[in-house]
Amino acid sequence: MRAVVARDRRLVVDDVADPIPGEGEVLVAVRACGICGSDLHTLEHSEHLVEVGAALGMETGFDPGHDYVLGHEWSAEVLEAGPGAGDLVGAGDLVVSVPYLLRGDTMLPLGFTNGAPGGFAERMLLTEALCVPVPNGLDHRRAALTEPMAVGFHTVERAALSVGDAAVVIGCGPIGLAIIAWLVARGVEPIVAADLSPVRRALATQMGAHEVVDPREEPAVDAWRRLDGLRPLALFEAVGVPGMLDQAVFDAPTRSRIVVAGVCMQPDTFRPLLAVVKELDFHFVYAYGPDEFTATLRAIAEGEVDVSPLITGRVGLDGVADAFAQLRRVEDHVKILVEPDGPTRTTEIRA
């Protein structure tokens, strides 16, 4: 089958071995798979994932010196069930799944392992027990946003917001926009968002932020002070580049919370004295739980959150490398979906 292979920090389309479902697995055809910021970071800084796996004592089966296939935000159609599978989902079902493949005592993080292909491929393997059928009526594109929206859901849960809290969201990429959507669903106000991109600022407004600023013109916390300045504040960092933590510590008001959802793979520093004097609380968040993943799919399917504005483009396997280049420029797109039979160059989709 064809897949987009990460090789020597480059993306190349190549033929790879057809996956064969093992015990408890299903073979699926990828319908759509989102390109995530962590995909971009991994391609450039894959060695840091090895360090993280070692620190956690996890066997991820990942060696960036060998070929691997990225992609962990998918919807897919079930083609075939392996031994011991087929009771929960069947051929023709559209499913989403948390991005792990369970094999014995090992959890392979799909998209970040050499042991099985991720979603930038024609077909892949999923553990049937982790598959969630997509409700009737929800199309494959919106279903593919379950994974990143679940990250936003979990981030807002971890913030432990109380009635009357305000929020500042730094970075209006897919995760920042997901955070805004869930803050709106909880009735948080005011919500101030900041991003360098006018496209993403416009989407932040569309998703429900009450005030959106260009941080080069007005820092987000200054905008919060202008609007309110009194309510307890949760500051969400959703950029994930060096320097953002230090800036958040500098900007945050006394006794506020900094909730870190941005995935920075390089070493970073901040000034602890400022955090100490201000008595800041830090919350670092990662992924989501299975219940949060399922609740996110239900909310999307029932229209409780509208993910359509986040989908700004689609591309086939042959155009993924170009799509990565576009996303690094940040001005052009938010979420580009990889559809294996899609166009060779990114085609815009606007809600």
Task: Provide structural commentary.
The chain is α/β, with parallel strands linked by helices and 351 residues long. Helices cover 29% and strands 25% of the residues. It is built from eleven helices and 18 strands. The strands form four sheets. Strands 3, 4, 5, 8, 9, 16, 17 and 18 form an eight-stranded mixed sheet that branches. It has a six-stranded parallel sheet with strand order 12-11-10-13-14-15, with helices on both faces. Helix 5 (174-185) runs parallel beside helix 6 (198-207). The protein is globular.
Structural class: alpha/beta
Q: What sequence of helices (H) and strands (E) makes up the elements?
A: EEEHHEEEEEEHHEHEHEHEHEHEHEHEE
Biggest β-sheet, characterized? 8 strands, mixed
Mean pLDDT: 94
As a whole number of angstroms, the C-alpha radius of gyration is 20 Å
Q: What is the number of strand segments? A: 18
Q: Describe the global form.
A: globular
Estimate the strand proportion.
15-25%
Task: Please give the alpha-carbon distance between the first and last residues.
Answer: 32 Å
Tally of individual helices: 11
**Unreliable runs:** none
Query: What fraction, in percent, of the residue positions are helical?
Result: 25-40%
